[in-house]
């Protein structure tokens, strides 16, 4: 007996409310439907259906099997869909959402390579630091900068970026180099509004204990490039990821402040609405980005 086929026939009989209707739905004969159900009952040693001339009802065993059979059939359909999507050639419009600074610095140089590799895919890339609803706004894929993963969507980690507290050498020469977190109260902060309360920073001491410090805000912005420009001009201390300021640190245009106090790393994620029925074009882009950022990202290096 083909057990999977028997589950399908049994589930269709229940869903359609009868053997003849199930036969029509499955494009087979009522006799075949009856045979499958009978063989399944014989195999399980339990009656699954109570049958009369007017109605059909599930036994207790039938109810339990029907629920499980539906799950099995859904899982098989999902596996087939994944296999089919993998086999298909990536093609069509691919809408991607990404943060502004990361999109310009680290994604824009990759798009020509991706388009050369997948000439049948038309990229539609929207950059914004606002967190968008992928489903509501019709995006196939999003790039997220996050510490806590993605509670809403399926996600794949692409890379990690350190966060660094830093300032321009000229600013520190003028205002002094902080020796303890308490010293930060005498300094100016260039704040990034999407990190939460603009006045507060949470640092981890050498033992990993969190310390909250409040620093007067000189400038608050929702864009990392604006914060970076202000810091380079000597307007205050910033806390920014190395994907944005890594080159400045290596060139000495910015220098770490209180380097023994750590700020948790952030992850670069590819997020997409669901792991089920992922299209070939989305899967291709995720794999492409994972390969592009494999190993130590270009933005990481000695500070």
TrEMBL record:
GO terms for biological process: DNA-templated transcription. The keyword DNA-binding applies. SUPFAM superfamilies: Periplasmic binding protein-like II, Winged helix' DNA-binding domain. Keywords: DNA-binding, Transcription, Transcription regulation. It comes from Nitrospirillum iridis. Belongs to the LysR transcriptional regulatory family. GO terms for molecular function: DNA-binding transcription factor activity; sequence-specific DNA binding. PANTHER family: HTH-TYPE TRANSCRIPTIONAL ACTIVATOR TTDR-RELATED, HTH-TYPE TRANSCRIPTIONAL REGULATOR. Residues 1-59 form the HTH lysR-type domain. The keyword DNA damage does not apply. This is DNA-binding transcriptional LysR family regulator.
